[in-house]
Structure formats: structure tokens, C-alpha cells
Design brief:
about 180 residues, alpha+beta, signal, Lipoprotein
Length: about 180
């Protein structure tokens, strides 16, 4: 049966007959335009959204939350959104939630103290940084319910002593280290 249908189709194509009453000899070829408007999604784009450090014991809800957060951040940081009315309003709001306080030194050889307060409401982050006698930072991530505290003090020309503590609802981790800068 297949052989019969195949032979019939071949004979019809040589004879020029067409059931649709179209003359194939004078028909122009169909030109499908290339879509240059729709942005293409690359592997790099997918890697920016899908977290590559997923733990085997991590819940589906947690993974989905991270994917949604990363996707929203990528979308929001795109030039189209940043230059829109919404993007400018969010940037303006973020800037209003940043404050720096400087306490100048009382003497020329004294130490000036600087406090930086930052609230990134749309990322649910709060940050406090101090520089003066030492460098210190406290970061709180409300979505992950995690706190990160870090103290740095210069011990040599290009080396800092670092004391840090990271805590979330499941565990706490304290570290002491030596950081090089070159």
C-alpha cells in the first residue's frame, strides 16, 4: 500500500498535476521572514535564573522561590524596565532608603567613624556597615531568614584579620580568617 501511494505521488509530481489546482511551475517560493525582534533565550540566560547550587535536601518551595526571585531580578535589571516609570520609581525609593552618617574625628590624628544604613526593600535585605576603629558589616536577608556579621581589622600591609558569623534558622557558622589583598 505504501509503495502504491509513493509511486502515485511521484507520478503526479512529474506530470505537474496538483489537486489544489495550483500550477507549481509558476508558483513563487514561500519566504518565511527571520524573527529579529523576539529576544532569544541563551544558556547563559537560563544559568542566571536557575540556581546551580541546589542542595539535595532543599525543599521545592525554596527552590521555586529562588528561581522566581532570580528571574524577577533579571527582568527588573533589564534596561527596558530600569528606564521605565516603574523602574525609576523603584530606584528612587531604594535611594531614599540609604543613609550615611559620618562622625568626624575630634583631633587631626583621631579616627572618624562612618555608618552606612541600607534597606533594599524589594530584595528584602537590610545592611549596616561601620568603618572607623575596625570595619564591620551586618547583613540581614529577610527572605532567607539569615544574618551575616563580619569584622575586619588590618594586621599587616595587605592582610586583614576577619571574624565572621553567619546564622539562619537551621544553623550558625563562626569563622576566623586571614584575608590577603594583592
Amino acid at each position: 500500500m505504501r509503495l502504491l501511494v509513493s509511486c502515485l505521488l511521484i507520478m503526479m509530481s512529474f506530470s505537474g498535476a496538483c489537486w489544489a489546482k495550483v500550477d507549481l511551475r509558476t508558483t513563487k517560493p514561500l519566504v518565511i521572514p527571520e524573527d529579529k525582534v523576539t529576544p532569544k533565550i541563551t544558556k547563559e540566560d537560563v544559568a542566571k535564573i536557575i540556581p546551580l547550587d541546589i542542595q539535595s535536601n532543599e525543599s521545592t518551595g525554596s527552590v521555586m522561590s529562588r528561581i522566581a526571585d532570580r528571574g524577577f531580578n533579571m527582568w527588573f535589571n533589564s534596561p527596558i524596565i530600569k528606564n521605565s516609570l516603574l523602574g525609576r520609581a523603584v530606584e528612587e525609593t531604594q535611594e531614599k532608603l540609604k543613609t550615611d552618617v559620618v562622625v568626624p574625628a575630634a583631633t587631626p590624628r583621631g579616627v572618624s567613624h562612618k555608618f552606612s544604613f541600607r534597606v533594599e526593600a524589594f530584595q528584602a535585605l537590610a545592611k549596616v556597615e561601620y568603618s572607623g576603629w575596625v570595619k564591620a558589616a551586618v547583613n540581614y536577608d529577610a527572605k532567607a531568614s539569615a544574618t551575616d556579621i563580619q569584622f575586619k581589622d588590618k594586621v599587616m600591609n595587605n592582610k586583614d584579620l576577619v571574624v565572621s558569623h553567619k546564622a539562619n534558622k537551621e544553623q550558625g557558622l563562626s569563622m576566623i580568617g586571614l584575608a590577603w589583598s594583592w
